[in-house]
Amino acid sequence: MSRTQRYKKLEKKFASNVQSGAVSFFRAIKNFFVRIFKILDSKLTIMIVPHSQSKVINFQTNVFALTFGAIVVVGIVFSFFYFNRRAVVSNAEINSLMAKNRQTMASLDELRDENTNLLQAAKRFQSSLSQSLSLLGIDKGGDVSKASISNGDLSSLFSTRDTVSGSLKETQDIRSLTTYLEDAVQPIEQIGKMLENQSTLFKEIPNIWPVKNPNVHISMMFGPNLHPITGQWYIHKGVDFSTWRSGDPIMATANGQVVTVGYDASFGNYVIIRHKHGMYTRYAHMSAFRVKKGEYVNQGQVIGNIGNTGVTTGPHLHYEVHIGSDVVDPSKYINVKLSR
Q: Which of 208-235 are b and which e, b meaning 16 or more Cβ less than 10 Å from the residue's Cβ?
């Protein structure tokens, strides 16, 4: 029990100390604010003495009012400088945004010009593609291939779609152009496949020059000509190619098989190649052979050299094309227009 009593006494003492401490604390705070109030409530007299004989002006106030007034004035001055600085910064930002806006508008105008040029190029492409497809017999189908290209309205070139509200006209034009190009992929692929399938056919038809030299020229065309030796009119059954010298290479004008490698009093050294579709080519007046009978040759392969053998007035190649037993004009098959 004695220990319990001691604990109770300590508890009462602690509570008394806490209470007295709290009272002292709040009393100190009260005294502090009282002193502050007395200081702020201190009376002041402000006198304005003019240099003239006017009456002296007196103002009575206290420290609180004077301090509050000073704080208000400082706040107003600070606010003036702060908002003035903000106005300057905002003005600079506005000027910068206006400059960027002008630059953006200039870029937009340039983009519109390029978009117009793109649409004009697309119009020309569409016209050429439609004509090519018609010649090749490919039906492109769809609204794009049926679009009118006769008037000046570029929108008639493409299938029309609803314009999204708020979208630029240029955006809709680009979308239409994208749709058109996507539709054009398939017929172009068909053209590529057709050309790929026909590439072999082109190599089987004698359609290139038999002599590849910067100085090559046609010295005599197919058909009626004056014989260079007899001076009489006769039918020249081939085309003569000349480079003014012997030794230049002669090429096979199509894929085929060599069926003759020989000599003739008129043609001199000559080679005959048999091609598909009943076609033959003869290469005469050669100075040397580069192939043998029975050999298969490819288009562009060297088979001999220009010479002066047989009946000639100078080194040249006499070139003939035969279809079956008929001799035809080689210029009808050569892919470069011949001129006298």
A: bbbbeeeebebbbbbeeeeeeeeeeeee
Give the distance, in angstroms, between the CA of residue 246 and the centroid of all CA atoms in the same chain. Answer: 50
278: left (phi over 0), alpha (psi -120 to 50) or beta: left
Q: Which residue carries 């005294």 as its tokens?
A: 31
Per-residue pLDDT of the chain (340 residues; tens, 9 = 90+): 577 777 777 888 888 888 888 888 888 888 887 787 777 777 777 777 777 767 777 777 777 777 888 899 999 999 988 888 888 888 889 999 998 998 888 888 888 788 788 878 877 887 777 777 777 776 655 444 444 334 444 444 444 444 444 456 777 777 777 877 777 777 787 777 777 777 777 888 898 999 988 889 999 999 999 888 888 999 999 999 999 999 999 999 999 999 999 999 999 999 999 999 899 999 999 999 999 999 999 999 999 999 999 999 999 999 999 998 899 999 888 864 444 3
What are the structure tokens assigned to 65, written together?
A: 């009012």
Q: How far apart are CA 238 and CA 222, in angstroms?
A: 5
Distance from C-alpha of 206 to C-alpha of 273, rounded to nearest angstrom: 10
